[in-house]
Amino acid sequence: MKNCAYIKKNILRIGDLIFKKYYIFLNNRNVIILYGHMQNILVTGSAGFIGFHLSNLLLSEGYNVCGYDGMTDYYDVNLKQSRDNILLKNPNFSKTTAMLENKEKLNEIASQYKPDIIIHLAAQAGVRYSLINPDSYISSNILGTFNIMEIARKLKVKHLLMASTSSVYGANSNLPFSETDQTETQLTIYAATKKANENMAHSYSNLWKIPTTMLRFFTVYGPWGRPDMALFKFVEAILNNKPINIYNNGEMKRDFTYIEDIVKGIRLLIDQIPNNLANITKLECDSLSPVAPYRVVNIGNSKTIKLLDFIKAIEDTLGKKAIRNYLDMQKGDVKSTLSDITLLQKLTNYSPQVNYKEGIAKFIEWYKDYYV
Ligand SMILES: NC(=O)c1ccc[n+]([C@@H]2O[C@H](COP(=O)([O-])OP(=O)(O)OC[C@H]3O[C@@H](n4cnc5c(N)ncnc54)[C@H](O)[C@@H]3O)[C@@H](O)[C@H]2O)c1
């Protein structure tokens, strides 16, 4: 079977090589069919919430995905394992379980798979946990990200895309947040490590001409979501007749972004390789560096939702009221987030589609199916 050639769903396989079918329409009668070699993509954090959905999307398009994840116990490892099990059903997915801090393993994987593109999502995530265990953020996010940048340099990858966060906007109060805004006021170590990643990536992009896109995600939610995030915690508590904690007495607003919109945005940005050559006309809203092939892009829904409306939509979908525990603002939290996504739209022609009520319903459907 290994050396057989066969075509399935517009994908031509010859041994280990995969080619995708492209159609070029000449006129009403003639069509040229070309097969192009599919690229290898290294996705770090592939067993995580966003990495899992992104890997699924890339595999559905015929890419070869090399997943890398340390399966940390920050939250339920069984959930990560279940995500892995789904991905592993696809023959174009391979998985390495190792930490980003393990340079030797990363080098081994890099020379074995020679990825054309790296999408670095693995990190110690979570704003609140960074007050409890800051060390893990320094290790995973600073050292781990540096190790990824090193292999991107050695492999001369076509494009390095790395996760950042809306938290880098910190104490900024001018809404919506734009990529060209100053970001000097991070409020937590989590946000500070992500801002440091952006700076580190800019320096490597400048020194070694690594085309780099930093992705600032805004509060991602949806099926297979993280147990430490509000939607998961609220649904779990309401179903189990436990109280939900509502910070700042509910006076909070978030730009909740549905997972499918996030991964579609990442997918489209893969093809938008930053190029700072003099003959390129820069868009007015572009964050493109003047000296390096580097840019930062917001991926958000660009709608601000009141936390209390979000909770009401959960109650309505579950058909059950929450027991509400109103609390003060948490240290390091921000009151409002809202993304300006003009740059994403101009680069990709894409804008997020799923509204929060629809997204909440999809999450609850998954949650009941998986847990109840
Ligand atoms: N989910 C959100 O709302 C959100 C918002 C903004 C930014 N982000 C960023 O997006 C990325 C993905 O987030 P997510 O929500 O999928 O988180 P996640 O925790 O579900 O996924 C991260 C994955 O990285 C792995 N990991 C952590 N540290 C590691 C290490 N040192 N070595 C190897 N693997 C390690 C974990 O096992 C996990 O599976 C993160 O960089 C996060 O900071 C997420």
Structural account:
The protein is an alpha/beta fold and 372 residues long. It has 2 domains: 4-37, no CATH class; 40-221 and 261-302 and 345-356, Rossmann fold (3-Layer(aba) Sandwich). The protein is 36% helix and 21% strand. It has 10 helices and 17 strands. It has helices at residues 49-60, 77-87, 103-113, 134-155, 189-208, 230-239, 259-270, 307-318, 342-348, 356-371; strands at 5-8, 11-14, 17-25, 31-37, 40-44, 64-69, 93-97, 117-120, 159-165, 212-217, 220-221, 243-246, 253-254, 257-258, 294-299, 305-306, 323-326. A 7-stranded parallel sheet has the order 7-6-5-8-9-10-15, with helices on both faces. It has a 4-stranded antiparallel sheet with strand order 1-2-3-4, with no helix packed on it. The longest helix has 22 residues, at 134-155. The chain is globular, with a radius of gyration of 21 Å. It starts with a strand and ends with a helix. The site of nicotinamide-adenine-dinucleotide (NAD) has 27 residues, from α1, α4 and β9. The site of nicotinamide-adenine-dinucleotide has 27 residues, from α1, α4 and β9.
Number of strands: 17
Structural classification: alpha/beta
For CATH, the homologous superfamily of the largest domain is named as NAD(P)-binding Rossmann-like Domain
pLDDT averaged over residues: 93
SSE topology:
Layout: E1 5-8, E2 11-14, E3 17-25, E4 31-37, E5 40-44, H1 49-60, E6 64-69, H2 77-87, E7 93-97, H3 103-113, E8 117-120, H4 134-155, E9 159-165, H5 189-208, E10 212-217, E11 220-221, H6 230-239, E12 243-246, E13 253-254, E14 257-258, H7 259-270, E15 294-299, E16 305-306, H8 307-318, E17 323-326, H9 342-348, H10 356-371
Parallel strand pairs: 5-6, 5-8, 6-7, 8-9, 9-10, 10-15, 11-14, 12-17
Antiparallel strand pairs: 1-2, 2-3, 3-4, 13-16
Helix pairs in contact: 1-2, 1-7, 3-4, 4-5, 6-8, 8-10
